C-alpha cells in the first residue's frame, strides 16, 4: 500500500517541528540516504544541467535518485527534463494539498540504469515560491514530513539549490552531507563562487552529519588542465583568506551536446551518455560514490581537449580508422 505521507503530519502539531524530527530519527535504523545540494555563486553556470545529468549517472550505478528542484526562485528542471504535464509541484507539498507520491514524476530508465536497478524521479519546483527561510512552521512542517519518507525509497537526493545570493541556497548547503559548488572559468563566476565559500563560513569545511561538505566542480572548460587551474585559484584564495579550502571534485567539458539538448528540452545525459560531458558527469558520479560510500569506481578516460585543431584532427583520425575497420 502506498504510504500517505501527508497524514503522517497534522498542521496543529506545527509548533513542535523539531521534536517530531528528533522522534523520527530515534525510531529508525540509520538511513542510507545521501543528501547532495548543487549551488553556485552566479546563475547560468550549469547547476540544473549537472544536477539532472548527475541523477541519471547515479542511476546508471544502480542508485535510486530523487532530484528536487529547490531553486525556489527560478525553478526550471521540469522544462529542462522535458516534463510537460506535471500537475503538482513542491508548492503543493508546502501547502499540504498533495502527498509526495502524488507529486513525484518518475522517469523511464533504460539500458545500464534499468539493468542495475537505478531510478530517477523529479520533484518539480513551483514558480515564484518563497524562500525556505521565509516559510512559516506550518509550511515547513508539511514539506519536512513529506520529504522524510524518502529515507525508505531513495539512495540519493540531489537538490538543485540555486544561486548562492539566495538565503535558501545556503540553507540547503548547511543541511546537506555534500555540496557541489559549480563554477565556470569566467572571472565573474570564480569571484562569486569564492563569495559563496565565504558566506558559508565554517560550514564549508564539513557537511552535515560528518559528510564531505563543499566540493568544487568546474563546468564549461576546454580541458582538464583549465579546470584544475580554476579550482586551484579558488582553493588558494580560500586558503589564504579563510584558512581552509574546499576539495576539487572534478569538471565538465564544454560540449555542444548540452546546448542542443537544452533547446530540445532533453537531458543531455539521457540522449548522449557517452558524449564528452556525459563521461565527465559519470566520472563525477563515480567520485561521489567513492566519497559517500567508499565505492571504487574506475575513472573513464576522455579525449583531452576536444576543442580546436587538436580535437578536429583526433576526430578526423578516429573516423578514418573507423572507416578502415568496416
Ligand atoms: N558543459 C557545458 N557545455 C556547454 N554549454 C553548457 C554546459 N553547461 C551548461 N551549458 C549551457 O549553460 C546554460 C545554463 O545552464 P543551466 O544548467 O540552466 O545553469 P544554472 O542552473 O546554473 O542557471 C545551458 O542552457 C547550456 O546552454
Ligand atoms: Mg538552474
Rounded mean pLDDT is 85
% residues in beta strands: 15-25%
What structural class should be given to the helix and strand makeup? alpha/beta
The percentage helix is 40-55%
CATH architecture: 3-Layer(aba) Sandwich
Task: Tell me the series of helices and strands, N- to C-terminal.
Answer: HEHEHHHEHEHHEHEHEHEHHHH
Q: How far apart are the first and last residues' alpha carbons, in Å? A: 54 Å
Low-confidence stretches: 1-14
Supply the CATH superfamily name. Answer: P-loop containing nucleotide triphosphate hydrolases
Q: Which CATH first-tier class would you pick?
A: Alpha Beta
Report on the biggest sheet: 8 strands, mixed
Q: Figure out the total of helices.
A: 15
Protein architecture, described:
- With 326 residues, the protein is of the alpha/beta class.
- The chain has a single domain (5-325), classed as P-loop containing nucleotide triphosphate hydrolases (Rossmann fold).
- It is built from 15 helices and 8 strands.
- The protein has helices spanning 17-26, 47-60, 77-80, 90-94, 100-103, 111-116, 137-148, 150-153, 167-175, 187-200, 224-242, 256-263, 268-271, 276-293, 308-325; strands at residues 34-40, 64-69, 105-106, 119-123, 156-163, 178-183, 213-221, 247-253.
- It has an 8-stranded mixed beta sheet with strand order 3-4-2-5-1-6-7-8, sandwiched between helices.
- β6 (178-183), α10 and β7 form a beta-alpha-beta unit.
- α2 (47-60) packs across α14 (276-293) and α10 (187-200) packs across α11.
- The chain is globular.
- The model is unreliable at 1-14 (pLDDT under 50).
- The structure holds adenosine-5'-diphosphate and magnesium ion.
- Magnesium ion (MG) binds next to α2.
Amino acid at each position: 500500500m502506498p504510504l500517505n505521507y501527508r497524514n503522517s503530519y497534522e498542521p496543529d502539531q506545527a509548533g513542535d517541528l523539531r521534536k517530531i524530527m528528533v522522534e523520527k530519527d530515534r525510531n529508525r535504523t540509520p538511513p542510507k540516504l545521501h543528501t547532495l545540494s548543487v549551488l553556485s555563486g552566479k546563475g547560468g553556470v550549469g547547476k540544473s544541467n549537472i544536477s539532472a545529468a548527475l541523477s541519471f549517472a547515479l542511476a546508471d550505478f544502480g542508485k535510486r535518485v530523487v532530484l528536487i528542484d529547490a531553486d525556489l526562485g527560478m525553478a526550471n528542471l521540469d522544462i529542462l527534463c522535458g516534463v510537460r504535464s506535471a500537475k503538482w509541484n513542491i508548492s503543493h507539498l508546502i501547502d499540504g494539498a498533495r502527498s509526495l507520491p502524488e507529486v513525484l514524476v518518475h522517469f523511464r530508465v533504460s539500458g545500464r540504469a534499468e539493468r542495475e536497478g537505478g531510478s530517477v524521479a523529479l520533484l518539480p519546483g513551483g514558480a515564484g515560491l518563497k524562500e525556505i527561510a521565509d516559510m512559516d512552521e506550518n509550511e515547513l512542517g508539511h514539506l519536512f514530513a513529506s520529504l522524510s519518507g524518502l529515507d525508505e525509497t531513495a539512495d540519493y537526493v540531489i537538490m538543485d539549490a540555486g544561486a548562492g545570493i539566495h538565503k535558501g541556497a545556503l540553507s540547503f548547503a548547511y543541511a546537506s552531507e555534500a555540496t557541489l559548488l559549480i563554477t565556470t572559468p569566467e572571472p565573474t563566476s570564480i569571484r562569486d563562487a569564492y563569495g559563496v565559500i565565504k558566506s558559508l563560513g565554517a560550514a564549508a569545511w564539513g557537511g552535515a552529519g560528518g559528510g564531505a561538505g563543499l566540493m568544487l566542480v568546474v563546468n564549461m572548460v576546454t580541458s582538464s588542465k583549465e579546470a584544475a587551474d580554476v579550482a586551484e585559484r579558488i582553493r588558494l584564495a580560500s586558503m589564504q583568506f579563510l584558512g581552509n579550502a574546499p576539495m576539487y571534485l572534478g569538471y565538465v567539458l564544454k560540449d555542444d551536446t548540452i546546448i542542443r539538448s537544452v533547446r530540445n528540452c532533453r537531458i543531455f545525459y539521457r540522449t548522449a551518455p557517452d558524449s564528452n560531458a556525459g563521461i565527465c558527469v559519470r566520472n563525477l558520479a563515480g567520485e561521489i560514490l567513492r566519497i559517500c560510500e567508499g565505492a571504487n569506481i574506475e575513472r573513464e578516460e576522455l579525449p583531452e581537449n576536444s576543442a580546436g585543431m587538436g580535437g578536429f584532427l583526433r576526430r578526423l583520425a578516429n573516423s578514418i580508422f573507423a572507416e578502415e575497420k568496416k
